[in-house]
Amino acid sequence: MPEHPKQKSGIQVTPGVAHAPSLNPNLHVPLPREKLSTEQLLNGLRTGSRVQLARAITLVESTRAADQIQANTLIERCLPWTGNALRLGITGVPGVGKSAFIEALGTYLVERGKRLAVLAIDPSSERTKGSILGDKTRMKALANHPSAFIRPSPSAGSLGGVARKTREAMYLCEAAGYDVIVVETVGVGQSETAVAAMVDFFLLLALAGAGDELQGIKRGIMELADAIAITKADGANEAAAKLARGHYRNALHLFPPRPDQWRPPVHTCSAFTGAGIDAIWASIESYKSKNEENGAFLQRRQEQALFWMKEAIQDQLECLFFAHPGVKALQAEVVAAVRAGTMTSHAAARLLINTYKPPKADSPT
């Protein structure tokens, strides 16, 4: 029988092509910046340098031990110039138009002589731990204004929709002379209430027709809100926004009176037309004035400082715990046992805690 010709494979391998050394050989790669001293950063902040402010925030957000030491020193040096700005937290469900609203409000403020800093928190990926950090592109007009500073930061897995170092970044912005500091969170969630523990005024943005005013899961957020704004109240959506305003007002009547006797107002607004922005700012100023008179403003800040002291203690204890040699040596074995189901999570935690021996305090001299 005649031999069948060998069948050719449908897959053909072509010789590899050598990659060019660079996608753009004309691209200039800048040399690493020289590390600035604490004094240089402080002087830059006090003279209003946005570049130095950005570098100072980068230092604060760094996880390197040496950077953390310098960052703590810088924050301590900044304390005499902190506390004079109005701290405003803005939150809302994704798609509510937080960035558009902040640009409209920010433009309104800078045009009236205010200096505005925006700390925008972007969600970090649980898989890659990366963030898009695209808030500057969504606030183009405001980002180019000389009296505005916009800094996107990754949430890095922290609860509450705020980055771990947001509070320290607020101190730096205050030392740099900004009058209003806006913290834009990643969106409403069960632990979003952490933002209310670092700002003077908590503004909740809502959409008409979303049904949020009837959802019990949002009750905790609404109780913390100092005001609610129904966004996108323009064109054909204006009537629906006014109807939603009435629903929210009715829902707020179900909540018990607040200790500061403030009744959160409900506004409608449009970032597109600018309608309602002035009324929202007037409410914020009214709230600040009334609470400064009755002492609630200062009391709120004092309680916030104690809250963040406890948070710092927990963070530092956790770092000390997992850095302990005994815990590090036993951790892999305990994790494997929990994964295999031969040890409960509570038993594993108890074993590691019993292994941990905190460092002895320095003996008195």
What does this structure look like?
The protein is α/β, with parallel strands linked by helices and 365 residues long. It has two domains: 83-294, Rossmann fold, CATH 3.40.50; 309-355, no CATH class. Helices cover 44% and strands 11% of the residues. It contains 13 helices and seven strands. The protein has a seven-stranded parallel sheet with strand order 3-2-4-1-5-6-7, with helices on both faces. Helix 9 (238-252) links the parallel strand 6 and strand 7. Helix 2 crosses helix 3 and helix 2 packs antiparallel against helix 7 (166-175). It is globular, with a radius of gyration of 26 Å. The N and C termini lie far apart (103 Å). The relative contact order is 0.09. Residues 124-134 and 157-161 have low confidence and may be disordered.
The major beta sheet can be summarized as: 7 strands, parallel
CATH class of the largest domain: Alpha Beta
**CATH third-tier fold name of the largest domain:** Rossmann fold
Secondary-structure arrangement, i.e. CATH architecture of the largest domain: 3-Layer(aba) Sandwich
The percent range for helix content is 40-55%
Instruction: Give the structural class.
Output: alpha/beta
Number of helices: 13
Spatial strand order of the main sheet: 3-2-4-1-5-6-7
Could you tell me the radius of gyration in angstroms?
26 Å
Distance between the termini: 103 Å
